[in-house]
């Protein structure tokens, strides 16, 4: 296995994280975040190549839990390039890069196999892709929620001088746009799963299905509270993080138990 690919990605992610730390600590005119984005793009390329290596099988694709977590983290890093050029979002860049530096090594440290035929039906491909996309946007929304909550509390305590209320409102709108996108994609994932998966409530799938439906309903309630009841503040952060935890329990933690504990 070509270990230099994940090592290159890890080093590049750590270098990008160090660059975002400098951007966060210094005024925007002193450090240009664009050169840090260049390092992040290189890290994403190395991450993608390492994923191709770890997911390749003889006649199948290895969609193990850590491979799928790594795919989700890669999508988050790629999409974040479009908003991390703003110096005010540098703290989010630090978190994304550090998380990805850990995640990119997981498929190589904890080797497991969950083979899927490479000749999947188009319906199954739609189910897999919409699930990954929903995970990506909900992960981004949760990351924005944590950043929003941290800034909201500091602004409320008058500990921030360089962040205005307008910037916080803009961050809130981006967070909710990502939440709406994740809600729609998660609905598509549930519909395609119902249409193309043989039995969504089979013994090895029932917990994922139930927790995913609960996460979708919780996300829908949060969006209803935001747009109809005009709910704001830390309640949004708590509800969005709860949605992320439900999805985390439904897919990641349950698959770790199935693949590494029950099988052994």
UniProtKB/TrEMBL annotation:
GO cellular component terms, semicolon-separated: plasma membrane
Highest taxon above the source species: Bacteria
Pfam families: Cytochrom_C_asm
Coiled-coil zones: none
Membrane-spanning intervals of the chain: 6-24, 31-53, 65-84, 91-112, 124-153, 174-197, 209-228, 240-262
Entry's Gene Ontology BP terms: cytochrome complex assembly
GO MF entries: heme binding
Keyword Glycosyltransferase assigned: no
Keywords: Membrane, Transmembrane, Transmembrane helix
Name of the protein this chain belongs to: Inner membrane protein ypjD
Native organism taxonomy: Bacteria, Pseudomonadati, Pseudomonadota, Gammaproteobacteria, Cardiobacteriales
Underlying gene: ypjD
């Amino acid at each position: 296995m070509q270990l230099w690919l994940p090592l290159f990605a890890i080093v590049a992610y750590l270098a990008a994280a160090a660059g975002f730390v400098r951007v966060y600590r210094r005024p925007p005119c002193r450090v240009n975040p664009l050169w840090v984005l260049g390092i992040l793009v290189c890290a994403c390329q190395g991450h993608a190549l390492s994923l191709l290596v770890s997911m390749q099988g003889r006649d199948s694709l290895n969609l193990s839990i850590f491979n799928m977590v790594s795919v989700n983290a890669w999508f988050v890093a790629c999409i974040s390039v479009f908003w991390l050029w703003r110096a005010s979002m540098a703290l989010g860049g630090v978190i994304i890069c550090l998380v990805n530096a850990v995640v990119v090594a997981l498929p190589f440290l904890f080797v497991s196999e969950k083979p899927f035929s490479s000749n999947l039906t188009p319906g199954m491909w739609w189910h897999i892709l919409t699930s990954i996309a929903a995970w990506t946007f909900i992960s981004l929304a949760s990351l924005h929620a944590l950043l929003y909550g941290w800034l909201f509390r500091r602004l409320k305590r008058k500990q921030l001088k360089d962040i205005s209320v307008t910037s916080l409102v803009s961050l809130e709108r981006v967070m909710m746009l990502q939440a709406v996108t994740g809600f729609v994609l998660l609905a598509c994932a549930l519909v395609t799963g119902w249409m193309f998966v043989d039995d969504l409530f089979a013994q090895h799938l029932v917990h994922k299905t139930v927790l995913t439906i609960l996460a979708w309903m919780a996300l829908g309630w949060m969006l209803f509270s935001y747009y109809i009841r005009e709910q704001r503040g830390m309640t949004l952060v708590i509800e969005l993080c709860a949605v992320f935890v439900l999805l985390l329990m439904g897919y990641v933690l349950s698959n770790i138990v199935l693949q590494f504990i029950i099988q052994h």
